[in-house]
Structure formats: C-alpha cells, structure tokens
Amino acid sequence: MPITSVTHDAEALTMTVVADLDAPLRRLWDAYLDPRLLERFWGPPTYPAVFTRHDGCVGGRSEYAMTGPDGDVARGYWEWMAIDEPTRFEVRDGFANPDGTPNVSMPAMRMVFSFEATPHGSRVSTTTYFGSVEELEQLLGMGMEQGMSEAMGQLDAVLADRVSCAATIGTATQILGDTQVRVSRVIRGTLDAVWRAHHDPALLRRWLLGPDGWTMPVCEVATEVGQTYRYEWEQVDGAGRFGFTGTLLESLPLHRAVTTETMIGTDHPSTANELTLTSVEDGTLLSLLITYPDAEVRDTVLATGMTDGIETSYARLESLIG
Question: Which domains, from first to last, does the chain contain?
Fold first, then answer.
C-alpha cells in the first residue's frame, strides 16, 4: 500500500493523501498523464475506470467512467486549471451526467497533485479542496477516502509494469466500449514536432501513407475550426485510389484536434476522431479516440488490419522527426 498518510483539515476544508512510491519521479508523473496507466488505478478494483478523454494541458478536459460489478456507472470529469511538468497539476474534479455534462446536483472540488523525488523514489501528494464543511462531510460519507485508498493501492503494480505501455511496443488499439476504440503510440519526437507533422501538408505526404506503394496526391489540411480537410491516396501503379474528408470541430494547438471523417464517394457513416498529444518521458504519447456509429462498423474496420496500417505510418513519422 503506497499511501503513507491521510489528513483532514476541517478549517481549511481539505483532505490530503500522500503516497510514496519506489519509482522515479518521471515515471510517476507519466502514470497520471497517460490515460492507459491512469485508468488502471484511478478507480477502486471493483470500479475500474475508463478515460475517454484526457488532455493534460491548461484549458483541457478529462472524462472518465467507473463501472461497478453490477453494471452501475459513476462518471466524472476534470477541468485542467494549471500544470507544471513534472511537479504539479491542478484540476477541477466533478461528477458527470451520462452525456458528459457536469452533474450540478453534486459537489465539484479543486484538486492539486504535487510530485517530488525522494531518496527512495518519488512521492505524490493529492490535496482536495471542498467548498464547505457539508461538502467535505458528504463526500467522506460517500466513501471518498476509502475509494482513493483502494484505488491508489494499485499504483505500485502500475509503476512496476514497464512493458505494456513502453515506447517500444508500437501502435496498440484498445476497445473502450460498443462504439469507441483508442489507438495509442509513443512517438519519439517532441510535442511540437508531432503536432506540426499532423498539420504540415509537406510532412503529411511523407508519412501518412500506410503500406508501401501508395502516394498522397491530395492533402488539404484544416487548421481552423469549421474548415474541411480532404486526403486522397493513390497506388503508385494507378490501380487504386481512395480518400477521406471531414470537418475540424475542435482545436487546442499542440494538444488536441477533433474531426469528423467520411470516406469519399461512399455512403458509409462518418466517425469522430479525437487526437490527443501528451509529453511523456520517451517522447510524445499520441492517442486517437475513434467513435463509430455502432459496434458492427467498429468491428468491420478493425478487421481490415487498421492497427497494422496505422503502425506503418506512425513508424514512418517517427523516422522523420525522431
């Protein structure tokens, strides 16, 4: 159990949880910034969490759901208020409705996460600021302290696992629900370089090609919300051609871009693609959350070998900027 102390201050309206870990500071920090790691310890063992959004930057947002053994779901969100890599970040933490909007009938809290190196590894101190004594008592009565203790009891095992999310494993696809998958890969390159590679047509034409033998004759990039993009690929021998188009819905430069995607010349349903970039120890974690219209379409696309094709492109990208 990594938790070394839990203190309540009724006058300051705070609860502080301190945990000491036998792991380097950077690895501990990355465990909170990488959704693949965070969701392995944010919820208690009986209520595991899934993060469908995790921006990790000022102005960003995180969204998660914890599902209990009977199928009941508790949803929450973070609004990122401050970040000082790799020593501190501050969020507004609240309960969410099924559609992701804040549940205003429940308290929202300010949480400050502080990280420091220690002689034996690293320490994280989590201070929760409540709005009133009543809110503090309400949330403690709901089992907040016990839940945090059980959740963080999993942190040692997460930090000891140096394989499942390592930069060397390449692209991985994780099914998050009936309609959503998350494609993840650590790109050996800076945050700025990876973002630029997704928005510079000259660079896109060099890496976003999938298997060998294809070119990208059309590369029209959307850089402002509301603009449309158009990408088309053609086989070198001219035997095949296809493309996608869509609209840029959200943009938070260096960190997040959300687009729609529709295959040109078909009546296939569109998808929503949420690209998130996060600085980690080995480079930049690229997370792509894809939302399909239903599970059947999701499975059909995955069966095409999508992950292998994406890995070929991302490996090419890494060779350009790494």
Answer: 3-160 (3.30.530.20), 167-321 (3.30.530.20)
